[in-house]
Task: structure prediction
Amino acid sequence: MADRGRSCIVDIADVEIIAPNFKKRLSGVTSTIIQLIPVQRALGQKIAALGPGLPSSIPHIRFRDLLSLWRAPSSRRFRVWHARRNIEMLPALLMRDLLRMKLKIVFTSASQRKHSGWTKFLVSKMDAVIATSSKTANYLEVPSTVILHGIDTARFSPASDKAQAKIECGLDPTKKIAGCFGRVRHQKGTDLFVDTMLRLLPEHQDWTAIIAGRATAQHVEFENGLKAKVAAAGLSDRILFAGEHTNINEWYRTLDLFVAPQRWEGFGLTPLEAMATGVPVVATDVGAFPEIITTGDNGTGILIARDDLAAMADAVAPLMDQPERLALLATNARAHVTHNFSIEGEATKLKAVYDTLG
Result:
């Protein structure tokens, strides 16, 4: 993932905020850091990353630069260490409390489950805590600030010509497309989407479906089972497994409807990415979905109960039959995200938390 040809090491003397990333594999947390840091710096925040698994084009410091943390930056009495995992909170506590380095520690929690005693202890020692949704805040036993994620609304934007967008991705421009993007696995509900399409597509000849995303090694068998089910139904040409793409924003532009069928989710960015691209969403009531999707006649989509195939089919079918309603929801979706969920807005709210520390 890292681009070894370019290195963007910044001088620790000019860094006021450190965003550690102590996990090599790509994850939602890693993706958040990659997207946020350039925006934060563009807004004047003196932030840099630390750790492996990041493109070297992301401004970062080296581990040896931590020896400079006994000295405060020129414009503050301390630096902010913004942790997002337990393994990033612990070393910060050691540096702040044992080594007496000039640090304040912020922790962002995205978890929607009961925390272990160890995690509760670490969180209790933070100088500030951020929750990525109100649901997440309910699992915390300390005061927190809710800051929902934002996205790049320029990258995720509607196609000027949807038919052409479909052609560029090798798709039939005469068909409407329902999509389900993200990791292919049981937790993500990919099977529910496939089963919904198996039920509805025979009655909706002008629609096709796309599953875009990677099945990691332990979930390949699950994906192969879905492909076999689609083939047995004779719908392999209408339910496409597109795999993982770095230009996923271009694939969103081909869609007319997005389905987020997750059984469990910490936050879940895919509905925001879809709505920013002007695509209505049918989603389960997990993660932050109830907080980012509006419903009703002037809404951006439909919320349904998790793990309910009948409810999903009942929500999707009318949208396939009502192009005028689909178009209205699409317009609402784009306006809703650009107004409420831009990544610049998220970065600005993070700065407000940093500033409360002194």
Notes: The chain has 13 helices and twelve strands. Residues 12-150+343-356 form a domain with the Rossmann fold fold (CATH 3.40.50.2000). Residues 1-6 have pLDDT under 50 and may be disordered.
